[in-house]
Write a structure and sequence with these properties.
The protein is built from 3 helices and no strands. The chain has 63 residues and is an all-alpha fold. It is globular and about 30 Å long.
Amino acid sequence: MRLGEIERLIKKHRIITPPLSRQTLIKMCEDGTFETSGSRATMVGWLVFEDSFLRWVKSLDQT
């Protein structure tokens, strides 16, 4: 999933209000919160594995 799609889903479904900034999402890629397809992809930006994003969303319910 592109980072832009994650931003859109967070806003649309109000997963976190206010939504996380792009910079925060990038930090989450860098620190391993989201599993990515390696380092920053050149043309499309960050690519996050969908199951990694869904695990993170589910973890929000547990706190």
